[in-house]
Design brief:
- The chain is α/β, with parallel strands linked by helices.
- It contains 12 helices and 5 strands.
- The protein has 2 domains: about 160 residues, P-loop containing nucleotide triphosphate hydrolases (Rossmann fold, 3-Layer(aba) Sandwich), CATH 3.40.50.300; about 70 residues, Helicase, Ruva Protein, domain 3.
- Strands 2-3-4-1-5 form a 5-stranded parallel sheet, sandwiched between helices.
- The longest helix has 27 residues.
Amino acid sequence: MYKDFFHLRANPFNVNPDPRYLFLTRHTEEALACLTYGIQSRKGFVLLTGEVGTGKTTLINKLLEWLRAQQVPTAFIFNSRMNVPQFLDYMMADFGIPCDTRSKSQILLKLYNWLLERYRAGETAVLIVDEAQNLADEVLEEIRMMTNLETFTEKLLQIVLVGQTELEQKLKQPNLRQLRQRLTLRAKTHPLTLDETKSYIQQRLRIAGSNGQQIFEGDALGAIHRYSSGIPRVVNLICEHCLVSAFVDQQKVVGTGIVDAVARDFDLGDNHAAMPPLPPQTPDKFDLVDALKTISNLAERLKESERDSTKEGKL
């Protein structure tokens, strides 16, 4: 509706987790590096957690985009309200493994043989489970048991559990302690700082085709950060409705008045005082390809170190 008015090619603040719009903060870089390293080095189990709306699904979609470009078989489970048979059926179907049996033992045997074939071909497979805080304990236990699909030296299936911060609390339950002990790597997403919020908004406008003209006043950007507490999903919500309101009023630049009005409409208070202070961050540029190469080299060095240690032990 407002695209032509602001000279944009696309709506910059859609809430869909489009990986093109992934904004790389220091925390996001660390999380992405942790996930890719865990998969490449066959660590088996990786955990990604974060508050609602902090970009976990967008980050996972970026990871899936990279995995599919590398032709890595993936299964992405986004509906965590399943029992064990439903979970297994969905996983096998998403991996593309033919399975005409309802027997759990036969399903797991087919999965093991398929993973072993991938391993012998020098490949791995990745299972990603989103909204994992909603998984029933028996499904989490089934996922834990899948980490037993391994050779003497490496895990055959790489598992990424993604969930809200409640997942961390859930994993502290005594009956899930075996699963918690198998988590080899942990990554987190975080709210944006004020400077990151400003850069986040400008990046999304640029990707959507902005020609560089000012659309949000500086004070308006600060107000958006306060009302959103730096939560990207809320930033998108506020910005989208600010652009709609500005278009209706035929205002080329969004000021604080429009931001305040949108915040009132959505019952968003001024959260500035409630926000915990974040450490200053250095806005270094991040190149995903270079990072992946670095991670790959690190994994190779670690494997060489392990082989050397094994040789020394034999001597």
